[in-house]
Write a structure and sequence with these properties.
Helix content: 10-25%
Radius of gyration: 16 Å
Order of helices and strands: EEEHEHHEHHEEEEEEEHEEH
Mean pLDDT: 96
Strand order of the largest sheet: 1-2-3-4-5-6
Number of strands: 14
Oligomer: single chain
Shape: globular
Low-confidence stretches: none
Number of helices: 7
Distance between the termini: 33 Å
């Protein structure tokens, strides 16, 4: 069982999650919008060993602190979807050159890629990779079936879903893949989105107005 903490960071209030296994004293960060020092401190408090940084997708408001984290922890493994690499390298595609004063990018040689269906052990549990396209070309959801939790970035929100009017977005595909890939998970699965409040798969399947 994990302890999950959220730091709401950056100019648009991005949820950055710190997951800690108190038994093994290991942690992971999911998304890094800003404030690298704060995220690292939270993830290494009391001697906890930070094992990895998991990125749900490559938009500027989820990757803003990545380069600062790399500068401080150059050997920390960083993961992102294989279909997000073009976005993470392009300030235009990751929206930083559109929406901020800083054209931000992360070199592909700093990240490891994951694909739909991959599995890996994270903090002592098996984590399954679910790629859901539509908000971006290759956004990833990180699913921990043993704990019944899903980190979904900007794919699915409480009562909403991610925008699809940015580069590589596709609303029809997003809706289809949420229904076919996420709504097949147990209804009690706790969903931790990239913005806003946590929800469950069952709640969104039943009442999300964009998915009826």
């Amino acid at each position: 069982m994990f302890n999950i903490y959220v730091a709401v960071l950056g100019p648009v209030g991005t949820n950055c999650y710190i997951i800690i296994n108190e038994e093994t004293k290991e942690s992971a960060i999911i998304d890094a919008a800003a404030s690298a020092d704060r995220l690292i401190r939270a993830a290494t408090k009391d001697g906890t060993d930070l094992k990895c940084l998991l990125l749900t997708h490559a938009h500027w408001d989820h990757i803003g602190a990545v380069n600062d984290i790399v500068a401080q922890l150059p050997s920390l493994p960083i993961y992102i979807g294989e279909n997000e690499v073009d976005l993470i390298e392009s300030p235009m595609m990751n929206l930083s050159s559109w929406l901020t004063d800083v054209a931000d990018s992360v070199s592909r040689d700093k990240v490891n890629t994951l694909k739909d269906g991959d599995e890996m052990t994270v903090l002592g549990e098996t984590m399954k990779i679910i790629e859901v396209a539509g908000h971006t070309a290759g956004g990833l959801c990180y699913y921990f079936p043993e704990s019944g939790i899903l980190f979904c970035g900007d794919t699915l929100f409480q009562g909403g879903l991610g925008r699809s009017d940015f580069p590589t977005g596709d609303e029809e595909l997003l809706v289809e893949q949420i229904k076919t890939k996420l709504f097949t998970l147990p209804s009690e699965t706790k969903v931790y989105p990239g913005h806003g409040f946590a929800t469950t798969i069952g709640e969104e399947e039943e009442s999300n107005p964009y998915l009826q």
